[in-house]
Design brief:
By secondary structure, the protein is an alpha+beta fold. It contains 3 helices and 3 strands; from the N terminus they run αααβββ.
């Protein structure tokens, strides 16, 4: 497994808002911004890429109490990446 970011992960980081701005994005908004159709395949690819970026400490995740698939997580780019720490804030 490589140690660099995939092209999709780089694109995601380029379009994600900074968490310090108080703005967060849902996966659907990221897909729309990147010009990708919200097909099941693209949603799966997006979910995995976001999960891997979070695991690397490059993005933050807020998990809400919504019981609607695809609408319960919000993402933002970390102001200061935290490497090796995976933490999720509950709302």
């Amino acid at each position: 497994m490589g140690t660099g970011l995939s092209p999709l992960q780089r694109q995601i980081l380029a379009v994600l808002p900074d968490e310090g701005n108080g703005e967060w994005a849902r996966p659907k908004q990221i897909l729309d911004t990147l010009g990708l159709e919200p097909t099941p395949s693209n949603r799966t690819i997006m979910s995995r890429a976001l999960g891997r970026l979070h695991k690397r400490g490059l993005i933050s995740v807020i998990v809400t109490d919504l019981a609607v698939p695809g609408k319960s997580r919000l993402y933002a780019r970390r102001d200061r990446p935290i490497y090796g720490v995976t933490r999720t804030r509950e709302v």
